[in-house]
From TrEMBL:
It catalyses: D-glucose 6-phosphate + UDP-alpha-D-glucose = alpha,alpha-trehalose 6-phosphate + UDP + H(+). The keyword Transferase applies. It is an enzyme of class 2 (transferase). This is alpha,alpha-trehalose-phosphate synthase (UDP-forming). GO terms for molecular function: alpha,alpha-trehalose-phosphate synthase (UDP-forming) activity. It comes from the Eukaryota. In the C-terminal section; belongs to the trehalose phosphatase family. Residues 840-861 are annotated as: Disordered. Pfam families: Glyco_transf_20, Trehalose_PPase. InterPro entries: Glyco_trans_20, HAD-like_sf, HAD-SF_hydro_IIB, HAD_sf, Trehalose_PPase. It comes from Flemingia macrophylla. Its EC number is 2.4.1.15.
Length: 861
C-alpha cells in the first residue's frame, strides 16, 4: 500500500498539511523507509503542536544533529557482493566541523548515501551506520531522488541562486511544480529520520545547504522549542532574481523557522534580508553587533561567517604527497616553467573557459611568457546532472586545442587540461608547485581552492621532504570578485572574470611580481587561513546558535498557520489572550471605568479603504459611552475634524486627536489643547525638507495635520523608501534640533510633532482628572495595535503604583495581534475587538444619569 506521506504530497506542496494525529502502534528504533522502489511504508505524521518527542531519548547531555543532503561517508560494495563496507570521508566538511564542537558533545548525522542500497538491505545498513558511525541514512525512492536532486535542486535552485534565469523552455529549465513537490517530499523524509533520534529538550539541529531549505518548517511544526540552525553554502541572489521563484515565500518562511541562519558573506545575508523585507515586510535590526529579524516574537539571528579549511587534513595529505614524491615528479615534468593553476568543478558557473581565454590573451599581449608560462587546468567531475555541461565541456576542449596549436611547440603546451578525477594528494602536489592560482568563477558560494593553495604553499612545518620545504613561502592569487572567499583575501588580485583583458593583465602582474611582495601577501593570507579554519567556523556558529536559542526558552511558544505559512509565536509568559468573559465580569463589578480605544487597526481594520466607522461600531460605542459609570475615549493619530465628524452620533464619547494634542470630553464639549506650545513655525522648516524627499521618492506623500507633519511611504519601493526615511530622520533631527518638537519614525512614516504629546500622556491626564473629581477608576480597558499605543500600555501598567487608579482596579491593557507588547493581553484582530465591544454594550446601562450633586463625572472630568 502506498504510504500516507506519499499520497499527501500534493497537499503538502500546495499548502495543505494533513491532520497530524498520533499512532498508538509501537515503532521500531530504525523503521524501514522503503519496501519497494518508489513506495514508502507507513510512517507517523508530524503533529503541529507537540513540544516533546514521541520516543524521548535517555541521553541528557547536549547533542548535535547535523542534517545534510549526503552523509560524510564513503561506501563500497564488498568484493563478494555480499554487503557493504563504509568509511569516513575525511575530506567532508561535515566531518571536519566536529573539531570546533565541544569534546563531550555527541554528534549524529542525518543524510543520504551516494550509493543505491537494495530495499532488502536498508534495515541492516541503517542499524550498522547508527551503531558504528552515528549516522542515520535517508533512503529516497529513485523517482523522488531524480526529481529532488537532479531536478529541483540542480536545474532550478542552483541556477537561480547563481543568477541564471530560465528565459526559455529549452531543456525544461522553467519552474516545474512536480519537481517542487518532490523537493517537499524529500525534505519530509529527512525530517522523519530526524524525529527517530531527536531529544528535543537537549539536542541542537544544524541543517546544511539549499537542498533542505524547507526542512526547518517540518521540524519546528513538530517541536516548537527545538534549537535549530541553518547554513547556506551557496550564494543567495538579490531580491530581483529571487522574487522570480514561484515558491519564494514558502522557502523564506521555512528558513525563518530556524533560530539562526548563516551565510558566507554579508552580500548573501543582505540579499536574504532584502527579500524578507520586500516579500514579507520584515525589517532587520543590529543589536550589539548581531543582526536579527523579528518574526512573531522570535528573533532570528543572521550569522555571517565564511567557512575555512581543515589545516590538519591539509598537512596530512601533504605528507602523503611528499612520501609519494609527487611534488618532485611534477617539478621535473614542468622544469623551467612558471605554473598557473586552476582547480574547478565541471560547472557552468566556474568560468573555466574565461580563464583559458585570459591565458590566451596574456600570451598574446606578453610574448615573453610564450614557452615559459603554463596553465594547468584541473576539472573535477560534475557533482550532478547540471545544465549545459556537455556544451561547456566541448567549448573548453575546443579552446584548449586551439591555443595549444597556436602557441604550442615541441615539449611545450601552454594549456594542460586535466580532465579526470584527481586524487587529493595529486591536487596538493600541483598546489605546491604553482606560482599562482586562478579562480574565475562568475558566481560561487565560497570556493576553498585559494585557502588550500595558501596552506600547501606554506609547506609542512618542521620536516624535511623531497619537495624542498626550505623554498621561500610565497603565493599569489588572481580571484573573481564574485566568489565568497574574495572579501577575506585582501592580498589577492581581484578581477571581473567577464573582462578577459583585465584578467590577463592580472595574471601577468601576479607572476611578474617581486618575491618580496609575494612573500608579504602570502604571510598575510596564511595568518587568516590558519586561524579561521573549519573548527573556528563551527565553534563560532554553535556559540551564536546557543545565544539565539536562549531567549526563546524563556517565552511561551505555540504554532499557528498551515503548510509553509506555519510559524511559532513566542511571547512573554505573562502575555495571554484576553478572556472577554473575565473582562466583562470585572466590568460588571466595577463602579468607575476608563475605556481607551485606538482607531486604525483596532476599531477599524488597517487595510480598509473606507476609514469611516460602521453603523454597528457607532451603535456599540454609543451604548458603552452612554453608561454613566464610563469614561470612553477614542485615542488616535488622526485629525480632529475627521474624528469629530465620524463619531458625531456618539454624544458622550471623548476624542483625543493627533495623539492627544487635541482633546475633547464629549461631543458638545470644547477642544482642549494639551501641548505646551501652540507655535507651529517649525512647520515652515520641516515641510520643505519633507517635500524634497517626496519629490525624490515615488509613491510617498506628506500629510499635514494641525499639530504635526507626517511623511508616508507605504506605496513607495520598500527598500528605497526605508532608506529615504532613515536619511530624512537624520536630516530632520539635525535641522529641528533647537525646535520644541520630536521627530519619530513609525511603520512606513516619519512624523514631526510637538514634544510631550503622546497617547501615554492622554491616558495619564484622563486617570488624573477622574481622581481629582472623586471618580478614581477601578476598571481600565486600553486597546491598541501599533507602536504609539505602547505609550498607553506603559502608563496603564504603572498607574496603580502611582495612585491614579484604585488599588483594587481591574486593568486590561490589550494589543491587537499576537506580537511582543507592553500590554499583558491580546486579541487576534479587529473582529474580536468588535465582539468585545458588543459584549460591553450588552452589559452597559445607558439609562439617563440623574445627578444628585452637580454635573456628571464625565462632564466634570
Amino acid at each position: 500500500m502506498m504510504s500516507r506521506s506519499y499520497t499527501n504530497l500534493l497537499d503538502l506542496a500546495s499548502g495543505n498539511f494533513p491532520a497530524m494525529g498520533r499512532e498508538t502502534r509501537e515503532r521500531r528504533r530504525m523503521p524501514r523507509v522503503m519496501s519497494v522502489p518508489g513506495f514508502l511504508t507507513e510512517v507517523d505524521d508530524d503533529q503541529a503542536v507537540s513540544v516533546s518527542s514521541d520516543n524521548p531519548s535517555t541521553v541528557t547531555t547536549e547533542r548535535m544533529i547535523i542534517v545534510a543532503n549526503q552523509l560524510p561517508l564513503k561506501a563500497k560494495r564488498k568484493e563478494d557482493n555480499k554487503g557493504w563496507s563504509f568509511s569516513w570521508n575525511e575530506d567532508s566538511l561535515l566531518l571536519q566541523l566536529k573539531d570546533g564542537l565541544p569534546e563531550d558533545m555527541e554528534v549524529l548525522y542525518v543524510g543520504s548515501l551516494r550509493v543505491d542500497i537494495d530495499p532488502s538491505e536498508q534495515d541492516d545498513v541503517s542499524q550498522y551506520l547508527l551503531d558504528k558511525f552515528k549516522c542515520v541514512p535517508t533512503f529516497l525512492p529513485a523517482d523522488v531522488l531524480a526529481k529532488f536532486y537532479d531536478g529541483f535542486c540542480k536545474r532550478q535552485l542552483w541556477p537561480l541562486f547563481h543568477y541564471m534565469l530560465p528565459f526559455s523552455t529549452d531543456k525544461g529549465h522553467r519552474f516545474d511544480r512536480t519537481l517542487w513537490e518532490a523537493y517537499v517530499l524529500a525534505n519530509k523524509l529527512f525530517f522523519q529520520k530526524v524525529v527517530e533520534i531527536i531529544n528535543p529538550e537537549d539536542d541542537y539541529i544544524w541543517i546544511h545547504d539549499y537542498h533542505l531549505m524547507v526542512l526547518p518548517t517540518f521540524i519546528r511544526r513538530r517541536f516548537n522549542r527545538v534549537k535549530m540552525g541553518f547554513f547556506l553554502h551557496s550564494p543567495f541572489p538579490s531580491s530581483e532574481i529571487y522574487r522570480t521563484l514561484p515558491v519564494r515565500e514558502e522557502i523564506l518562511k521555512a528558513l525563518l523557522n530556524s533560530d539562526i541562519i548563516g551565510f558566507h558573506t554579508f552580500d548573501y545575508a543582505r540579499h536574504f534580508l532584502s527579500c524578507c523585507s520586500r516579500m514579507l515586510g520584515l525589517e532587520y535590526q543590529s543589536k550589539r553587533g548581531y543582526l536579527g529579524l523579528e518574526y512573531y516574537g522570535r528573533t532570528i539571528s543572521i550569522k555571517i561567517m565564511p567557512v575555512g579549511i581543515h589545516m590538519g587534513r591539509i598537512e596530512l595529505v601533504m605528507k602523503m604527497a611528499d612520501e609519494e614524491c609527487k611534488v618532485r615528479e611534477l617539478k621535473q615534468e614542468f622544469e623551467g616553467k612558471t605554473i598557473l593553476l586552476g582547480v574547478d568543478d565541471m560547472d557552468i558557473f566556474k568560468g573555466i573557459n574565461l580563464k583559458i581565454l585570459a591565458m590566451e590573451q596574456m600570451l598574446r599581449q606578453h610574448p615573453k611568457w610564450q614557452g615559459r608560462a603554463v596553465l594547468v587546468q584541473i576539472v573535477n567531475p560534475a557533482r550532478g546532472k547540471g545544465i549545459h555541461l556537455d556544451e561547456i565541456h566541448a567549448e573548453i576542449q575546443e579552446s584548449c586545442n586551439r591555443i595549444n596549436r597556436m602557441y604550442g611547440r615541441p615539449g611545450y603546451e601552454p594549456i594542460v587540461f586535466v580532465d579526470r578525477a584527481v586524487s587529493i594528494a595529486e591536487k596538493v602536489a600541483y598546489y605546491s608547485i604553482a606560482e599562482c592560482v586562478i579562480v574565475t568563477a562568475v558566481r560561487d558560494g565560497m570556493n576553498l581552492t585559494p585557502y588550500e593553495y595558501i596552506a600547501c604553499r606554506q609547506g609542512i612545518s618542521g620536516s624535511e621532504s623531497c619537495s624542498n620545504v626550505r623554498d621561500p613561502k610565497k603565493s599569489m592569487l588572481v580571484i573573481s570578485e564574485f566568489i565568497g572567499c574574495s572579501p577575506s583575501l585582501s592580498g589577492a588580485i581581484r578581477v571581473n572574470p567577464w573582462n578577459v583583458e583585465a584578467t590577463a593583465e592580472a595574471m601577468n602582474e601576479a607572476i611578474s611580481m617581486s618575491d618580496g611582495e609575494k612573500l608579504l601577501r602570502h604571510e598575510k593570507h596564511y595568518r587568516y587561513v590558519s586561524t579561521h579554519d573549519v573548527a573556528y567556523w563551527s565553534r563560532s556558529f554553535l556559540q551564536d546558535m546557543e545565544r539565539a536559542c536562549t531567549d526563546l526558552l524563556r517565552k511561551r511558544c505555540w504554532g499557528i498557520g498551515l503548510s509553509f505559512g506555519f510559524r511559532v509565536v513566542a511571547l512573554d509568559p505573562n502575555f495571554k489572550k484576553l478572556s472577554i468573559e473575565a473582562m466583562v465580569s470585572a466590568y460588571k463589578r466595577s463602579r468607575s471605568r476608563a475605556i481607551l480605544l485606538d482607531y486604525d487597526g483596532t476599531v477599524m481594520p488597517q487595510n480598509s479603504i473606507n476609514k469611516s466607522p460602521s453603523k454597528e461600531v457607532l451603535s456599540m460605542l454609543e451604548s458603552v459611552s452612554a453608561d454613566p459609570k464610563n469614561v470612553v475615549f477614542i485615542v488616535s493619530g488622526r485629525g480632529r475634524d475627521s474624528l469629530s465628524d465620524w463619531f458625531s452620533p456618539c454624544k458622550n464619547l471623548g476624542i483625543a486627536a493627533e495623539h492627544g494634542y487635541f482633546l475633547r470630553w464629549s461631543h458638545n464639549g470644547e477642544w482642549e489643547i494639551c501641548g505646551k506650545s501652540s507655535d507651529f513655525g517649525w512647520m515652515q522648516i520641516a515641510e520643505p525638507v519633507m517635500k524634497l524627499y517626496t519629490e525624490a521618492t515615488d509613491g510617498s506623500s506628506i500629510e499635514r495635520k494641525e499639530s504635526a507633519l507626517v511623511w508616508q511611504y507605504r506605496d513607495a519601493d520598500l527598500g528605497f523608501g526605508s532608506a529615504q526615511a532613515k536619511e530624512m530622520l537624520d536630516h530632520l533631527e539635525s535641522v529641528m534640533a533647537n525646535e520644541p518638537v520630536a521627530v519619530k519614525s513609525g511603520q512606513f512614516i516619519v512624523e514631526v510633532k510637538p514634544q510631550e504629546v503622546s497617547k501615554g500622556l492622554v491616558a495619564e491626564r484622563i486617570f488624573s482628572s477622574m481622581v481629582a473629581k472623586g471618580k478614581q477608576a477601578d476598571f481600565v480597558l486600553c486597546v491598541g495595535d501599533d507602536r504609539s499605543d505602547e505609550d498607553m500600555f506603559e502608563i496603564v501598567s504603572s498607574a496603580i503604583s502611582r495612585n491614579i487608579l484604585a488599588t483594587n482596579a481591574s486593568v486590561f491593557a490589550c494589543t491587537v495581534g499576537q506580537k511582543p507588547s507592553k500590554a499583558k493581553y491580546y486579541l487576534d484582530d479587529t473582529t474580536e475587538v468588535a465582539s468585545m465591544l458588543e459584549s460591553l454594550a450588552e452589559e452597559s446601562d445607558s439609562s439617563p444619569y440623574i445627578e444628585e450633586t452637580g454635573d456628571s463625572s464625565r462632564s466634570e472630568v
